[in-house]
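ok so I'm stuck.
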Amino acid sequence: MKNPVIQTFPLSSPWQTLDPFLFSVYHLDHFPKGNGEMGPDESLLKGRSLGSDFNPSAKWRMYHGQTIPGFPFHPHCGFETITIVNKGFCDHSDSLGAAGRFGKGDVQWMTAGRGVQHSEMFPLLKDDEENTLELFQIWLNLPKVGKFVDPHFKMLWNEDIPIIEEGNAKIKVVAGTYKNVNPINPAPDSWAANPENEVAVWNIHVDADSEYMLPKANSSEVNRVLYFYEGDEIRIGDKKINPNFGIVLDPTQDVNIKIGSETAQIMVLQGKPIGEPVAKYGPFVMNTQEEIQKVMEEYRLTQFGGWPWPHPDNVHDKDRGRFALYPDGKLVEK
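replied:
not stuck anymore, here's the structure
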């Protein structure tokens, strides 16, 4: 049997992706204690480029935050964001009037469609210890027929997401059927909503000094990439792979992965390619540059519905638990 590894590549920020995915970024920040106002209890006067703090050598980053870390309001159009928060919390607010605080393994799935603004802030809720944040954000493209659908906001609570224990492995099934286990339904207009597209987002943890068998896909047409983001080493066939590498795999083969002396943390992104032209300008993703220009003009004219919140870096009350407020006014508290 031939080696299932097609290609390996070092992980940069953002991670390299294949169609139907556009972008994937992994944030791991060891934020300090909070200052009582959900910002860091450390000086921001030195060594911080506030408004653009992406220093990869820093223990933690403010990103575009000025007082609280995160990403103040910004637009998206033409694709979807899947945001997984394993540690820490994310405060979401958007131009639909939706809002939420999620963490502890929760996932937010947002279809930007014809256009939405949102903010993603990382409140430091603990004032007596570190506030570690571990977050993935994955951009899943929409096909031409879905570029201008209505925006959609969906929460996948950690308690509801299937987590499969298989030998020495735990597989968190965010999207895509894993063997006979179905995920929570994705957003309705998503490329992932059609099972034939075999879109999968699986976060896999495998114990040290053990093995794990990744099952093959049903179709040879899918792109499959494994991201090895934490551990010391893994082996696939005769190939040793160090951490912080991506691996493009042959989807037609079961893949036996041998784990080194540390627990391996792996993300798998898989899906049938959309196979359409991609035109991108920052947070806008269309099929042509002409469409990009039209979307930019629409944003200038309408601001995608405006911003109904008091601050561009809106955060929720410090003592608030996990919750989701939907555009129709429905409130879910966890």
